Every structure is written in structure tokens, then in C-alpha cells.
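A common beginner's mistake is to predict each chain separately and then try to dock the pieces by hand. The better habit, illustrated here, is to supply every component at once so that their relative placement is modeled jointly.
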Amino acid sequence: MTIPRSASVEIIAVGSELLTPHRQDTNSLFLTARLNDLGYAVRFKTVVGDETAGLALRLGEALEQVALVILIGGLGPTEDDKTRSAVARALGRRLVFRPDILKTIEERFRNRQVRMTSPNRRQAYIVEGAAVLPNANGTAPGQWVRAGSKTVVLLPGPPHELKAMFDKSVAPRLERRRAGFIARRALMTTGLGESALESLISGLYPKAGGGLDLTILASPGQVELHVVSHSRVSRKLAEKKADGLAARLRSRLSEHIYSDRGESLEESLARLLRDRKMTVAVAESCTGGFLGHRLTAVPGSSAYFLGGFIVYSDALKTGLLGVPQELIQSAGAVSSEVAEAMAAGTLSRTGSDFALAVTGIAGPGGGSPEKPVGLVWIALAWRGGVDVRKSLFWGRRELVKFQSAQKAMDMLRRHLLQPEAAGNRDVT
Amino acid sequence: MTIPRSASVEIIAVGSELLTPHRQDTNSLFLTARLNDLGYAVRFKTVVGDETAGLALRLGEALEQVALVILIGGLGPTEDDKTRSAVARALGRRLVFRPDILKTIEERFRNRQVRMTSPNRRQAYIVEGAAVLPNANGTAPGQWVRAGSKTVVLLPGPPHELKAMFDKSVAPRLERRRAGFIARRALMTTGLGESALESLISGLYPKAGGGLDLTILASPGQVELHVVSHSRVSRKLAEKKADGLAARLRSRLSEHIYSDRGESLEESLARLLRDRKMTVAVAESCTGGFLGHRLTAVPGSSAYFLGGFIVYSDALKTGLLGVPQELIQSAGAVSSEVAEAMAAGTLSRTGSDFALAVTGIAGPGGGSPEKPVGLVWIALAWRGGVDVRKSLFWGRRELVKFQSAQKAMDMLRRHLLQPEAAGNRDVT
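With all components supplied together, the output reads:
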């Protein structure tokens, strides 16, 4: 998609800790989403340590290429915080002491009954000519600096400070000079591999230059389709284009799409269960609790999730769920029969409307030629029926657990979408 | 820490998808760890889209500042893959077709019985003068390009290709000209807040200039102390310095440190349980399965983890674990009494040596002035005793779940470290 240079952005995250193996900038993901919504595109992202020279240099280079540079972090009260002086140096301006800012900071400390230490004075300096962006959640104010046709924005590093400041003070300023309108749709699918999905939607890729883009992001157990459209005229036009392509994709992919607004699978499933006032319980072997964890990641999940069993050992499969010991010996713990017995045991012991049972080999050990690592049996049981599926998942332990939980939730989701399914009796 | 310019690095990740809100470069974290071990320090990290002009420009700027530039990605077979041509442009060199590379690629396709499509030919071009770095896991070879005193390295984007290539072909080349030796120690703590920890270790911060650094990374439920030392002389000297500081920190923090080699809490706990041949089971309310998920994240966890109960609803607390209904009504589901009863019920029903029970309010809803969001009761029970603790955790739903699991595992860990604790009877 071609975005004019007047709408191009570089995001510079400042902080030596972001140059270690242990920390990563994530603020730029939030900023990118918001900037895209406002019609801006990020052309470069950079991380620079706490060093005035490198930062001033990089800012100078960025201003040669883009219209807007956003600096994140380095506004704290200590000597390590170099952003203010680096911006002043790059723009050839002075730093100006602002007593009114110091007063605000002092008041903040007083209200919290904390004694201010003298270094906080540093935070009262701004780049000559900058507009001050108030910080509702911290002491360091942000700054909005015009330099010819370019703009430099200084934002604090803590995410809750940055987000509030961007939405309150930066977005409205950018809105006034927006270069266009961008609309996004995120279609979430599971149960189809990337190549199978691509062949289903062949011919739907938009032509270049029409202000419409389709990007496919595939990961094990999930394929996302991201539609982005751009209009210089209006938000409505951008949304119409995006909705048009989203509708064509939906007509090809139908029930494979679990959300067209970027929700997680557990959120989509939550909606279906809530609407039907139905409940689910789980019995987990190889997922070890991960399926329950996913289901309870949604606030208010107690409305449809009762709980269940983690039966990692075979003794507990028998002791807690009544899976016959002989069945485990004859069919094996990872088998269709045991998955089904686990689901049936869960249904009767919890009184839930649905039970999901997972048994498999997460690896790296425990595999055999007949039952390799990645083999997982999943059973969905309800009063009057059961559905058992075999999967062979690829990847490391945590990926096998993820794909297993994904598949289990998707089995229940697809079941609930069938008009004749249990759970729809009272609805249609 | 001062690292000479000859050991300074910029990492440039290439790919327009890395400039969206949905994807993030993570290869640079792996590369940073490896580079640090080799005595190199990352000075800048940059993300550039699939555009030759921007990439060539950024590479030129990087070469002005650092000794080594590593480019990640953009080596695929399609028109989107611009890294080769951008490097050629920045260095003023030609791209050279290498029939031997094409042959290797063709063989790879033949072996996998896949027909090669013509675009793969692109991958057989190298920058004039470059050394070819073989790709054991993919078609795109890497490249090692000398340019005066500077070096440019091109690596493929898929992590398993990049990692294998770095370790096999890049690390040995860097080793030969290493600028120094770096040693790292990661001391992992839980159960102490950042400021409490800082006051315990006051006076231990190393002075600047001695080639020894201490960084504290605090997040809810975990504080990590990273020791990094640098020596121009030998690895041994670097390690001695790092071990010296680590020992001084350990003498102050003792049992608050659960690992001095960067392990996760579940890995440390796994070792303690394995050594003692003891087992654990869980009863989870507000964590919803997350504690079991953490415990089973360690390969081979079936040696010490039996399983347990997810009792999200009060009915299941009574039905599965025998928590008296009257107790839930009088004391409340989130109470010391119910946590203790959950742990006792788990112990008797699973036959484990230890039981961990968690009941709390993960939020955002469900809080009250007496029992606010973040209130969590955790019980550890064993044959002959029980320990119940109250916590008030701060943060969003997933953070409350994380801190609860962290605290539960830490209670068991500290218990196992007591000389007189259950579990140590046969050991001492």
C-alpha cells in the first residue's frame, strides 16, 4: 500500500535494557495500531540505548526520511534518561526549565505523600518551542515538537502512561492533519492449514495500487487474515472497501472463521456458550491445565466454565474419572477409547452440558513409532453423543499443548454452530 | 559497560510484516544473547520493511557507526525479498549468480520430491565478494560480506534456519576475532518486591568502569538480577568476576533465589521434587488450570506431577473435593478455610505427597471492599501439616493468575528447602 511520505513514521524506543536478550519494546505495537487507524504508516522502528550521541544521530537520520518521529522512553528523572537532551542536540535547540511543570510534579508527590527527590527536577525541562503533553499517570510530561515540516513526539516508556497520553494528546493532534483513512479487519481461522486456506481463497487477493491489502499470518493452530484498506477521502470509503473483501473471504471460508474482529478463540467460544446458556467442563492429560487456563482467560468465564480434572497420571484417570484400568492397559492412555471415557466421566461428575477431554503425547519424550510425539486424541461429549478426533500436531511441547487446546475449543465451537446440535434446542 | 567500537553491532530485521501491529522481531533476542557471549554489544536494533531504498540507506548509516551489521530476513525467493539487492546497492557491488548454489537448492527440492518454481533462482545470487553460509534447514544461503574494516552478515528469517546458521557459520568467524569475553549470571528470585530486594543488596552495585554490571529486571511475581562481566584477557577472568558478584548477592538473598542459571520457577521446583522422589497435585479455582499448565511445561513432569482439580464453580469445590457447602457459605469461597479444605481434599483424593490449592479473585469483576480483586488464598498441604497464605496481587486478570501460580510454587519450593520439612526425611 502506498502511503505518502507526509504520513510516514519512525518509532524510536530508547533504553539500554531493550538492547539486552531479556527485554523487548512492545509499546511500538500499540502505537503502530493507533497510527494505522489515523492513516499513518510506520516505515522504520529503531531501538537505541541510553546514550545521547547515538540517539541524537539516529533522530537526525530519521528526520531526513519520515514526517513524524515518535521517541519512547528515556524521560525519567535519572542521569540515564537522555531523550530530552538528545532531541535538543539533534534539533539544535536549548532545553528550557519550566517552573509550572515542576509545580505539577511537586503536587503529584504531595498528593501521594511521597517526598520528591531532587533529580525529578530534570523532568521539568522541555525542548525549546515544544508543547507539553500532560501525563495523567506519571511524573514525566510528554512533548510535541515541530521542526519545519517535521514533528518529533516524546512519550514516556511505561505502557499505561504512554497509552493514555497518546490517546488524549497525540491522537487528536494527528487527527487534525490526517493523511487518509485506514480500515482493518482481522479474520481469525483455525482448523485449516495455510496452504489449504490459500487455495480456498485463490483469486481474492486484491490487485496492487487499489488501496486494499490482504496479509495472511499463519502459526500452528491458527491462521489470521488481515485486511487493510486505505482511502484519502473518508473513513466510510475505507471501511466499505475492507468490508467488501472481508465478505468475499467469509463466503469462501464460512465456518472456518471464528471471529472477524480479531478475537481469541476462547472469546468466540465464550460468546457462543453464553448465548446458549450452556456449560463446559474439561479433563486434561497432556495439556496439563492449559485448556482450563485458556477458557478462564476470559473475564466472567464462570458463567459457562465449571472446572474439571487434570489427570496427568494414569492412576488419576482411573481414580478421578473412572476410566477402567483394563482399558488403559489394552488401548493405551493415548487412545480414542480413553479420550471418550475421560469425557464421559467428566460429564457425569460435573453435571456440565459439554465435556472436552484431551490425551496425547506432548513430547519431547514418550513417543513411539505407533504413537509418535504430537499424537493427540480429543473427545467432545454431551448428553446423547460424543465426537472423538485424532490429530498429529507438529512442533515443540508448548506448541503441541497450544494446538491441542485450540482443536478442543474448535470442536465445541463447530458443534455449537450446527443447527441441530445439542445446545441449540432452545434457541432456534 | 564500555565495549570498543570494534565490537559494536547493529541488527536490522527486514520485513514489512514486522512494521504491523501483529508481528514482532524476536530473532534479535537470540542473536543478542549469542553476540554478548562472544564479546559483542548491540548498539542499535532496527526494523525496515521490504523496500530496497530504505534498507540500503539504513545499512549505509549503520556502517558509519558500528563494526558489524547483521541483517535478518528478506532472503526468500519472491520479489518482496530485497535484502540481497539492498546490500549490493549500499556497498556499491554487483550481484553475482552462483550456479553451485542453484544446484544445492535444486538438490534440496529433488530430495523432498517437490518441484522447484523458477523464482528460487533468485536465491542463487550473492553480493560480489561474499562468503556463502550454508543453510542446513532451508533454501536461502546466508552471506558474510567484508567491506573494509566492517562486516555485513545476511541471515534468513525463519528462527530455526537463523539459529543453526549462526551457531555453525557465524559464531566461529566472530570467535576468531573476538574483542573480549563476556560472562553472564542470571539470579532468579520470587517472593520479594523490587524495593525490598534493592535494600537487601545495597552496597553491592559494582562501580562503573570495572567491567562488571548488575541489572535488575522486575516484573510482578519475579525479580531477576543479571550479572554481566567483561574481560579483554580471558573467559576465565570474566567468569571469575561474574561468580564473585553472584556469590555476594547470594549471601544476601539466600533462599529468595530459586535459580542462579536463569531457570524458570517450575524447572527449579521440578529438580527439588525429582531429587526427593516426591509428588504434587493441585486444586485450582481462580488460576483455572494455569498452575497445572506451568508444572507440566517441564518435559518429564509426569515424574512428580499427578494432576488435580479445576474447581471454578463452588458446586465442584463441594462435589469433587468435599469442601462443605456450609463452609463456602460462612467463610466464602475465597477464604483461608476453603483453601485449606481444597488442599486437604486433593491430598486424600490423589494420594500425592503435596497438594497446592488456590482460590482468589482474578478480576476484573467479582471484587468487594472486604475481598478486593487480587485477593488470593493459597494452601500447601502435606501428610501431617498445612500452610495457608493470603496475598493481595496487583494487576490485570492474567497477572493475578501468574502471581498466584508463582506464589504457590514458591511456597512448595521454600517448604522443600527446610531441613525438617516433609519430603526431606529420607534425604538427610
